[in-house]
Hints:
Elements: H1 7-15, E1 21-25, E2 41-45, E3 57-58, H2 71-79, H3 82-90, E4 96-99, H4 104-113, E5 116-117, H5 122-129, H6 131-141, E6 148-151, H7 156-165, E7 172-175, E8 185-188, H8 191-196, H9 198-202, E9 207-211, H10 220-229
Parallel strand pairs: 1-2, 1-4, 2-3, 4-5
Antiparallel strand pairs: 6-9, 7-8, 7-9
Amino acid sequence: MKSIRSISDLRVFMHRNEQPIYFISATNFNLLGLDQWVRNLRYINYIDCFDGRHPNVFVPSEVPHAEFESIEDINNYLLQHKEVIDHIKSHGGRPVATFLMFDDETEELCKELGIEVWFPKAKLRTRCDNKMETVRIGNKAGVFSVPNALEKVESFAHLMQIAERAKLGSDLVIQSAFGDSGHTTFFIASEDDFDKHKDEIVNDPEVKIMKRINCRGATLEACARALRDAGARHVGVLTVARVVHAAL
C-alpha cells in the first residue's frame, strides 16, 4: 500500500504487517490490545499479567539480577536475557522495538542484537522530558503555559522574591525537572509548606515556579457535578456520533 487515506486503509496496512514488532516493558499494559490491530506485534515483559494465557506475551524465567531502580533497568535486563534473545531470533525478520522508557544502554543493547528502536534518540527524549525544557520549547513555539518562572531557589525568602518579580502571587506550585508529577510537584502557600520540601527544592539546579490556578473541570463528570450542585435532580448525557466507515 503506497498511501493511507482512511481508517480502513490504516487497518489493512497494520493487518498486513510482516515485520516483527516488540513492546518491551515491565508489563504490556501501555499497548494492551494493540496486537489485535497490528499483525506480528508481540510483548516481552517482566511480569506476566495473564498467567501464561496471552498468546502474544512472552515472559522469561527469572534469573539473578541487580535490584531494579527504574523501568529502564527492567528493559535492559530483558534485553540481556538469553531466553528473550532466543525468542526474538526465533521469529526472524528485521525486528524493531518500542518501549515505555529506555536509555543509552537500551539503545546499545538493541544495536548489538540488530534491533531497530522505533523512537528518537534517548538523549533527545531525556532533554524533552525535562519540564524546564518543555516550557522553553512551548514558549518558543508560542504555546505558553501557566504563568511561571524558571530559576534556582535558595530559600523561602528567595522564592518570594522570584514570585513577586514574576507577578506569580504567594500561592505557588513548584515542579522539579524530572520525575512523576505526583512526587515532584510541591504546593507552597507558606514557609511551613516550603520547609516540608526544602531539600528537594533547593538542591535542584532549577525549578519551575508557577502561579497556582483553579483548574475548572470540563469532563462530562465535572459538568454533571456542576449541574447537580446547581440544583438539577437528574442529569443525563446524549452522545451524537457519525459513522466514519461502516466496517468499524
